[in-house]
Design a protein that fits this description.
Structural class: alpha/beta
Distance between the termini: 6 Å
Mean pLDDT: 97
Largest sheet: 8 strands, parallel, barrel
Radius of gyration: 18 Å
Strand order of the largest sheet: 1-2-5-7-8-11-12-13
Strand content: 15-25%
C-alpha cells in the first residue's frame, strides 16, 4: 500500500456531461475541474457553467455529494491549453481573497495551476503565498510539463517550452502536490526512457525527487488513451494489449516512496470513453 495521502487524480472537463459525483463513484479521489477561470480579479468557470451541473445550486450539491462518495479533494483548475489564467497583474492579495471566497462558497477544497504559458513565476509564487495565508487548509497544486537541456540530463518542470515558471513557488514549498504531465513532449530521455515508454513513470519520479522539495508530493500523470495526448505511451505503433496493467505496475513500483502522491489522468471524460480502464487498473494500487 502507498502512503495515505496518495490520490487518484482525474481532470474533469467542464463542458462535458459527467458529474463530480459520477467521477467519485468510479474511484477518483481527487477530481480537478478543467477549467475554472481567472480574469483580472474575477473568478468563474470557463464557458460560464459546469455543463453536467449547470446551475450554482446544482454544482454545489454535486460537489457535496461527490465528497460523500469518496472524493477527498475537489479542485478548481485554471490554465490549460486554452489558458483561463489571466490575472493581469491585479493585486495578489485581492485575487487570493476572491479565489478563496469562490472556492469556499462552492465547496472546492483547493486550486490547481495548469499553466501552459510563458508567465510570471514571481507573481504565481506570491499568489500561492497569499492563498495559503488566507486559507491554510486549501490544497494548492500545479500541473507542470516536463523538459530537459540534453538527453540524459536531469528533468525539470516547465509551463511551456523551457519556461520554468513554477520554480520559485516549488522551491518555496507552495504546492502540496505536483501533477506532472508526463506526455506531449517527445524529447526528454531519462535512463533510456521517453514519455512514449511506460517506465518513464517510475524513472521520471525517481529523477524529480532530486529537485522537488521532500514535503511536496509527486504525482506522475498520463493520458487516458491515444485521444488524450499528442505524444504518449498510447501514441506508439505497438501499444501493448496490457497497457493499463503495465501502468498500474509502474505506480506500484514507486507507491511506497514517502514522496509518492498518487496517479493522475487526463481526463476523466476520455477515461469514460474507454470504459474507465485507467482508473479501474490504477485505483487499487493507491
Amino acid at each position: 500500500m502507498s502512503n495515505n495521502k496518495a490520490l487518484m487524480v482525474g481532470y474533469l472537463q467542464s463542458w462535458s456531461n459527467i458529474t463530480f459525483t459520477q467521477a467519485a463513484e468510479q474511484g477518483y479521489t481527487a477530481i480537478v475541474m478543467a477549467f475554472g477561470k481567472i480574469d483580472g480579479a474575477t473568478v468563474g468557470i470557463f464557458g460560464d457553467a459546469f455543463a453536467a451541473s449547470p446551475s450554482e445550486t446544482a454544482l454545489k450539491a454535486d460537489i457535496k455529494k461527490a465528497k460523500s462518495k469518496g472524493a477527498q479533494q475537489v479542485l478548481f483548475s485554471v490554465g490549460g491549453e486554452i489558458n483561463t489564467y489571466n490575472p493581469n497583474d491585479v493585486s495578489t492579495v485581492v485575487l487570493a481573497q476572491n479565489l478563496v471566497e469562490y472556492l469556499t462558497d462552492y465547496g472546492f477544497t483547493g486550486v490547481d495551476f495548469d499553466l501552459e504559458i510563458n508567465g510570471d513565476g514571481k507573481y504565481l509564487d506570491e499568489l500561492c503565498q497569499a492563498i495559503k495565508q488566507l486559507a491554510p487548509t486549501l490544497l494548492i497544486t500545479a500541473a507542470p510539463q516536463v523538459n530537459q537541456f540534453a538527453p540524459g540530463s536531469d528533468l525539470y518542470l516547465v509551463s511551456t517550452g523551457h519556461c520554468r515558471m513554477y520554480d520559485q513557488a516549488i522551491n518555496n514549498n507552495r504546492f502540496d502536490y505536483l501533477f506532472i504531465q508526463a506526455y506531449n513532449n517527445p524529447f526528454p530521455d531519462i535512463d533510456g526512457s521517453k514519455e512514449t515508454n511506460v517506465d518513464f513513470i517510475s524513472k521520471s519520479f525517481i529523477n524529480f525527487k532530486k529537485s522537488i522539495p521532500a514535503e511536496t508530493l509527486i504525482v506522475i500523470g498520463e493520458p487516458a488513451n491515444k485521444d488524450a495526448a499528442g505524444t504518449s505511451i498510447f501514441t506508439v505503433p505497438d501499444v501493448p494489449a496490457n497497457i493499463y496493467p503495465l501502468i498500474s505496475d509502474q505506480y506500484q513500483a514507486i507507491c511506497k516512496d514517502p514522496q509518492f502522491g498518487g496517479a493522475m489522468v487526463w481526463s476523466i471524460n476520455l477515461d469514460a470513453q474507454t470504459n474507465y480502464q485507467f482508473v479501474k487498473a490504477v485505483k487499487d494500487t493507491l
